[in-house]
Specification:
This protein is globular. The chain has a six-stranded antiparallel sheet with strand order 1-2-4-5-6-3. It has one domain: Thiol Ester Dehydrase, Chain A (Roll). The mean pLDDT is 93. With 174 residues, the protein is of the alpha+beta class. It contains three helices and six strands, in the order ββαββββαα.
């Protein structure tokens, strides 16, 4: 089973920031239990969406150098809103600091321009071959799979056109 909490990457600036969206639908399996009469996206899954967007930023920034990108720690996490079916969670993450194996990011999730969640994420990245040289083939397989998945999530031309449309709309309304 796969838990993908990013529907589309809408903006990505390698080495800097990412923005992505997740539209919650009533068809999400976990909503049957969370909560039956008031279905909302669990807070930990909102955090997961921010992590997944962050992981795509790291992978693209490093040209998919590492096969494994994992959340090491979430600090100062604050929940200030609910995501209900039909709403779109817009997540963004910005790289604050990076060393050989750890990236620190400032992440935020919004619904209709209002904050819903924020956190500082510490993300660890590595290759399986670092602990087992025989796993180099697995690294290559995973990286190729991740590249294909990324190509399904991010369309730079479409994202650029959408950004231009938003800029034009803002100019017209001013």
């Amino acid at each position: 089973m796969s838990f993908d909490f990013i529907d589309r990457i809408t903006d990505l600036r390698p080495g800097e920031r990412v923005e992505a969206i997740k539209t919650l639908t009533l068809a999400e399996e976990y909503l049957k239990d969370h909560f039956p009469r008031f279905p909302v996206m669990p807070g930990v899954l909102m955090l997961e969406a921010m992590f997944q967007a962050s992981a795509w930023l790291i992978r693209q920034s490093e040209e998919f150098q590492h096969s494994v990108v994992v959340l090491k720690e979430a600090r100062n996490t604050k929940y200030t809103g609910f995501v209900e079916p039909g709403q779109t969670l817009v997540v963004s993450a910005e790289i604050i600091k990076q060393d050989e194996s750890t990236t620190t990011l400032k992440a935020r999730g919004e619904i209709d321009g209002s904050g819903a969640v924020s956190s500082r994420l510490l993300v660890h990245r590595y290759n399986l071959r670092e602990n087992d040289p025989a796993a180099a083939g697995k690294d290559a397989y995973m990286i190729e799979h991740l590249r294909r998945k990324f190509d399904l999530l991010y369309f730079p031309i479409a994202a650029d056109e959408e950004s231009e449309e938003n800029t034009a709309e803002a100019s017209e309304s001013a």
